[in-house]
Design brief:
alpha+beta, Butyryl-Coa Dehydrogenase, subunit A, domain 1, 21 helices, globular, Butyryl-CoA Dehydrogenase, subunit A, domain 2, 7-stranded mixed beta sheet, homodimer, two-stranded antiparallel ribbon
Chain lengths: 592, 592
């Protein structure tokens, strides 16, 4: 059965050495001294390893059960959910006035990686509640906030997001669920929603659905969509739960993974709903939470890779098979451990350098969100808006690939469910799909974010890389291993952007055909930048002769691997992009 | 539910335009005229689409059931197996004297792709029987052949291969199953074997296990391994089934995929076994079938990609979502089909260009096997020996990736088991693992095959590419799109080989750290060569103004995509290889 050890040391390094949180002027950051974050991470790690991990494989095996409209979560989930609530984790970064702890989003992200790594299916119940609560917080009236938030912040009631319908996923302009205005100001919601994670379950007294629907007579397409609060049980003004509302789960889906989370078909049959935000502005309301939600999914992809990597290492050290070609390493045993073999190393180093680089990227992204929200920093807001599709698309694609590579270390045992490695890959797979499939992320990046505010944010990104390179120009220890590769990769990325500018105006397909490659290039350059920065920090730390020198030396060695072995992917992506749209668009649809 | 259409037209193109089988002097090839192969492929395709495909998803859902030592295959498998036997398909390329049809391996491969694509789990029952029969054919005494082969060629009795034990997979030198000689010349086999595909099931009267075991007192390690025939039921000299032998299935495994095939723990408890081939030469006996077995697994990887691709295209044409940015394509509908979107095209073209290029590679490999076996052509034998790890490793890695990409086209529906796209990915996943995990293929390629016979075969490969380029030097229509990219990729591959030669002697890890990248580079160059050749053939065909010009034009366009968008991967792999072993091997095991 897989194990999980929280990456507390690595997160502390990122918070204090890398992001230097206590030196930051972001409101709430000054409290984040090492002792404080250490204590938070320690506690969260304990919950993740001791409570959530043991339920991961059993939850996968057992799955959710649907019986007469009721969804039963796997054995142990309910108790674990109580412990999660008692620890106050669901409201970690939510406002104190509604029962939260008002911590930075950054801390929530660090803790969230642990919970997701330990048990993605379980953690989604509170993750979706967090998303729904954020929407109410951003767009609700005071009365709505007072009514719904306290119970949602504590996870006494959970939340969901209802977007997809059978005939429409990405293209929400097509949606058919309708919301008919009633005399009392409420609406009657009618329609069917699918793929609703945590749409029904047995761990909360009430479920607060946020539902996209169209008010008859409104504009066509996405401009006529509004957002509604539709509770499972109606709640009176005193907060007392009343009658069942006209919404029910019709079935739950059999899926490739995340079996512990109920993916529901939700049927709305004249259910009472309350408008959240402005009429016809539902898409805007949804999108204000998108950066957080998508960063959260990027985090899930990374988390599965992290958990899978840990277990791949355990097996690679334990399993005796073959001999080191350069000389026997385990003379007393019948064979050497797998980890002596170069190709196993290559595999593990791919994983390790991705996990640690991706974690830095994610934490940087979370800090940008805090800067945007807590300091109203427009530049940070623009930067995270640019990076969000990269975080979501790149970290989940690579996260899945790395979970698959981790599974490969186990050979045949990786394919057997008993060992748990298959589950990491199966659970990671959904992160590439939900919250906007990765092709849509690439479209968002190239079709929208690159040109946003006149291209200001992408220019700021390149400027940041340039400044870093300039500042460290004389650093001979970093030059060949870190600075030169970063420079080359960043040049590739700029060349791709240039290609889009030159050809995209005349033929949008020239840019869109290269969007997926661009997203991956961008991800590699971001991780290259993270590694170069971490290398600098590690180098500085080593100059002070720290007691944990090994940690920093390993950090440098891992970064060197990424720069030498992973970053050259940018050249391939550039070559593809430069080949243009012709070969992609040439065939008639009938020729496929 | 997924559909399957056999690629008859494409296979006919490969057999007749590309490989020009009837012009070949390989014994048995002259009979392969278009009418004959067309009829065979047509019949096989019908069985695949109409009988095997409908059982694929249901077999996955139902799985095999283990009850009191008995394994029950999913509903419908037994009937389908009878139809398969009645058609004579299991013995297609096996000798007539044992009831086979003695057709070339090439035809068996073409047909095998269809069966595997339609239902991999099901087709494994006969595939393993074929492997075991081939071993008996190559190493058995006449009496053994007469006793076992007729029933195995017809699949009245099925076969298995027993290599892995709980503590040893790749490193078979560690195996513990023992074979004690008896006075009557037989052996008593005792030990436990795991991951035995089709080890027990309800579709055959007897199961003939081929088992690797050690005769006490023999040499240590792989040099002391012998191969035994161990039937489930003993068989007397008249061929009558007698008493149950001392072998039983202890349990079947829960797996990520191939649920319709029973993966068994087999317990041998003093079971009667008969030596196959020479004492202590069991590994050699196993390895003589390795080229075929590994090519067969490469075929499975390709087959899953082919089936997944077909269904991705269906969905991409059917699902309406969003609008073509260059102008509405489906004005009467609420949205345009997915296939108008450049990134969906990119995804589908990746798949299509891999499937058709990979199919050509596979068929070329099968022809080499026929040349080696039917003509005793040593050069063909050397070439297929070199290419086998590439066919296995590259086609299964890419086959899995492409099945995952096909799943992605379906968005959320791809993750739901109901749509069947998850199964293609889950079933394809095993092909990267069994019959030698792909890391072991890379090791075989770089550590053994490159230097085999003084490097003769790899030099012959490069010579072949060079000759092709030379012969077509003046072909301006092929130059930029096909010849130049092939030349560049081949140069990258040679540079990598050069790097290994220069550094590998001093430090084997310098070569082994790059083995996986080399395997993928090699695969890309092979597909590049296949595409360049197919382009030439297509061009020539178009010069004759054929009635099916569209087929050849599509072939050219698909090839152009591969050369422009897939082949540039060689540059990335070369950069990784050239970075050497340092970053791969740098860390102490404890630092992971």
């Amino acid at each position: 059965m897989p194990q999980y050890t929280a990456p507390t040391k690595d997160l502390q390094f990122l918070l204090h050495d890398f992001l230097k949180v206590s030196e930051s002027d972001i409101p709430g950051y000054s409290e984040l001294d090492e002792g404080f974050t250490g204590a938070v991470l320690e506690e969260a790690g304990k919950l993740a390893s001791e409570v959530l991990t043991p339920l991961n494989a059993s939850g996968d095996r057992e799955g959710c059960r649907f019986e007469k409209g009721v969804v039963y979560t796997p054995k142990g989930f309910k108790d674990a959910f109580e412990q999660m609530k008692e620890g106050g984790w669901p409201g970690l970064d939510l406002p104190e006035e509604y029962g939260g702890q008002n911590m930075p989003y950054l801390v929530n992200t660090a803790v969230g990686e642990m919970f997701s790594a330990a048990n993605q299916s379980f953690t989604m119940y509170q993750g979706l509640t967090h998303g729904a609560a954020s929407a109410i917080l951003a767009h609700g009236t005071d009365a709505q906030k007072d009514k719904w938030l306290p119970k949602m912040v504590s996870c006494e009631w959970t939340g969901t997001m209802n977007l997809t319908e059978p005939h429409c996923g990405t293209d929400l302009g097509l949606l058919r669920t309708k919301a008919e205005p009633q005399e009392d100001g409420s609406y009657k919601i009618t329609g069917q929603k699918i793929f609703i994670s945590a749409g029904e379950h047995d761990m909360a007294d009430n479920i607060v659905h946020l539902v996209l629907a169209k008010i008859p007579g409104g504009p066509d397409g996405v401009k006529g969509i509004s957002l509604f609060i539709v509770p499972k049980f109606l709640v009176d003004d005193e907060g007392t739960i009343g009658a069942r509302n006209g919404v029910a789960c019709g079935k739950i889906e059999e899926k490739m993974g995340i079996h512990g989370n109920a993916t529901c078909v939700m049927n709305y049959d004249g259910a009472t709903g309350y408008l959240l935000g402005t009429e016809h502005k539902g898409m805007r309301a949804m999108f204000t939470m998108m950066n957080e939600a998508r960063l959260g999914v990027g985090m899930q992809g990374l988390a599965q890779a992290a958990a899978a990597y840990e277990n791949a290492v355990v097996y690679a050290k334990d399993r005796l098979q073959g001999r080191d070609v350069t000389g026997v390493k385990n003379p007393d045993g019948p064979a050497d451990p797998l980890i002596v073999h170069p190709d196993i190393r290559r595999n593990l180093m791919d994983q390790k350098s991705f996990v640690e680089g991706g974690r830095a990227f994610l934490m940087w992204g979370a800090k940008l969100i805090d800067e945007a929200h807590r300091k109203q920093d427009a530049e940070a807001d623009g930067m995270i808006s640019l990076l969000t599709p990269v975080i979501k698309g790149f970290l989940t694609d690579q996260g899945f690939d790395m979970a698959v590579q981790a599974q490969q270390v186990y050979g045949g045992h990786g394919y057997i469910e008993e060992w748990g490695m298959s589950q990491f890959a199966r659970d990671a797979r959904i992160t590439q799909i939900y919250e906007g499939a990765n092709g849509v992320q690439a479209l968002d990046l190239v079709g929208r974010k690159l040109a946003q505010d006149g291209g200001k944010h992408v220019m700021a990104f390149f400027e940041m890389v340039k400044t870093f390179l300039k500042e460290n120009e004389g650093n001979e220890a970093l030059k060949a291993d870190f600075l030169d590769p970063l420079k080359a990769a960043s040049k590739d990325l700029q060349a791709a952007g240039m290609f889009f500018m030159q050809h995209g105006m005349k033929n949008p397909n020239a840019a869109l055909s290269g969007s997926y490659d661009f997203m991956h290039m961008f991800g590699h350059v971001c991780l290259g930048l993270m590694w170069a920065r971490m290398a600098k920090v590690a180098q500085e730390a080593l100059d002070n002769g720290p007691s944990d020198a090994g940690f920093y030396e390993t950090k440098l060695a891992t970064g060197r691997y990424y720069m030498a072995r992973r970053l050259p992917a940018t050249g391939m992506h550039l070559a593809r992009i430069n080949s243009g749209a012709a070969t992609v668009m040439d065939l008639d649809a009938e020729a496929f």
